[in-house]
Amino acid sequence: xxxxxxxxxxxxxxxxxxxxxxxxxxxxxxxxxxxxxxxxxxxxxxxxxxxxxxxxxxxxxxxxxxxxxxxxxxxxxxxxxxxxxxxxxxxxxxx
Length: 95
Description:
Layout: E1 3-9, E2 16-21, H1 24-32, H2 38-43, E3 47-54, H3 57-68, H4 72-82, H5 90-94
Antiparallel strand pairs: 1-2, 1-3
Protein backbone atom coordinates (compact mmCIF):
# COMPACT_ATOMS: atom_id res chain seq x y z
CA UNK A 1 0.00 0.00 0.00
CA UNK A 2 1.19 3.52 -0.78
CA UNK A 3 1.15 6.44 1.63
CA UNK A 4 1.19 10.06 0.55
CA UNK A 5 2.41 13.30 2.06
CA UNK A 6 0.73 16.13 0.20
CA UNK A 7 0.37 19.89 0.00
CA UNK A 8 -2.84 21.66 -0.96
CA UNK A 9 -3.11 25.35 -1.80
CA UNK A 10 -5.97 27.78 -2.20
CA UNK A 11 -4.16 29.43 -5.14
CA UNK A 12 -0.59 30.16 -6.22
CA UNK A 13 1.18 31.64 -3.17
CA UNK A 14 -2.06 31.25 -1.22
CA UNK A 15 -2.90 29.38 1.95
CA UNK A 16 -1.27 25.93 2.16
CA UNK A 17 -2.21 22.74 3.98
CA UNK A 18 -0.03 19.70 4.65
CA UNK A 19 -1.48 16.24 5.11
CA UNK A 20 -0.78 12.51 4.99
CA UNK A 21 -3.09 9.78 3.67
CA UNK A 22 -3.13 6.25 2.29
CA UNK A 23 -5.73 7.16 -0.37
CA UNK A 24 -4.88 10.46 -2.06
CA UNK A 25 -7.75 10.28 -4.55
CA UNK A 26 -10.35 9.86 -1.79
CA UNK A 27 -8.71 12.45 0.45
CA UNK A 28 -8.40 14.92 -2.42
CA UNK A 29 -12.09 14.45 -3.18
CA UNK A 30 -12.97 15.09 0.46
CA UNK A 31 -11.01 18.34 0.42
CA UNK A 32 -12.49 19.43 -2.93
CA UNK A 33 -16.08 18.81 -1.82
CA UNK A 34 -15.44 20.23 1.67
CA UNK A 35 -16.56 16.91 3.15
CA UNK A 36 -13.43 17.04 5.31
CA UNK A 37 -14.55 20.33 6.85
CA UNK A 38 -12.17 22.23 9.09
CA UNK A 39 -9.25 24.33 7.93
CA UNK A 40 -9.30 23.41 4.23
CA UNK A 41 -13.03 24.10 3.88
CA UNK A 42 -12.80 27.34 5.85
CA UNK A 43 -9.95 28.74 3.72
CA UNK A 44 -10.79 27.19 0.32
CA UNK A 45 -7.63 25.09 0.28
CA UNK A 46 -8.45 22.38 -2.27
CA UNK A 47 -5.83 22.30 -5.05
CA UNK A 48 -3.36 19.43 -4.87
CA UNK A 49 -0.05 21.09 -5.77
CA UNK A 50 2.57 18.64 -4.48
CA UNK A 51 2.89 15.11 -3.11
CA UNK A 52 5.40 12.40 -2.30
CA UNK A 53 4.77 8.65 -2.15
CA UNK A 54 6.06 6.30 0.56
CA UNK A 55 5.87 2.55 1.05
CA UNK A 56 5.05 2.58 4.73
CA UNK A 57 3.03 4.76 7.11
CA UNK A 58 5.86 5.32 9.61
CA UNK A 59 8.07 6.99 6.99
CA UNK A 60 5.18 9.06 5.60
CA UNK A 61 4.14 10.30 9.04
CA UNK A 62 7.75 11.12 9.94
CA UNK A 63 8.09 13.12 6.72
CA UNK A 64 4.85 14.99 7.43
CA UNK A 65 6.08 15.86 10.92
CA UNK A 66 9.34 17.11 9.41
CA UNK A 67 7.41 19.34 6.99
CA UNK A 68 5.18 20.66 9.79
CA UNK A 69 8.32 22.27 11.24
CA UNK A 70 9.11 24.04 7.96
CA UNK A 71 8.30 27.68 7.49
CA UNK A 72 5.63 28.58 4.97
CA UNK A 73 8.20 30.06 2.57
CA UNK A 74 10.08 26.77 2.44
CA UNK A 75 6.87 24.91 1.54
CA UNK A 76 6.09 27.45 -1.19
CA UNK A 77 9.62 27.04 -2.56
CA UNK A 78 9.19 23.24 -2.62
CA UNK A 79 5.95 23.62 -4.58
CA UNK A 80 7.53 26.07 -7.03
CA UNK A 81 10.52 23.80 -7.62
CA UNK A 82 8.36 20.83 -8.58
CA UNK A 83 5.18 22.54 -9.83
CA UNK A 84 6.16 26.08 -10.92
CA UNK A 85 2.76 26.85 -12.47
CA UNK A 86 0.89 25.73 -9.35
CA UNK A 87 -1.20 23.35 -11.45
CA UNK A 88 -3.84 21.33 -9.62
CA UNK A 89 -2.51 17.74 -9.85
CA UNK A 90 -5.74 16.11 -8.71
CA UNK A 91 -7.08 15.46 -12.23
CA UNK A 92 -3.89 13.64 -13.20
CA UNK A 93 -4.19 11.16 -10.31
CA UNK A 94 -7.99 10.82 -10.17
CA UNK A 95 -8.42 9.48 -13.68
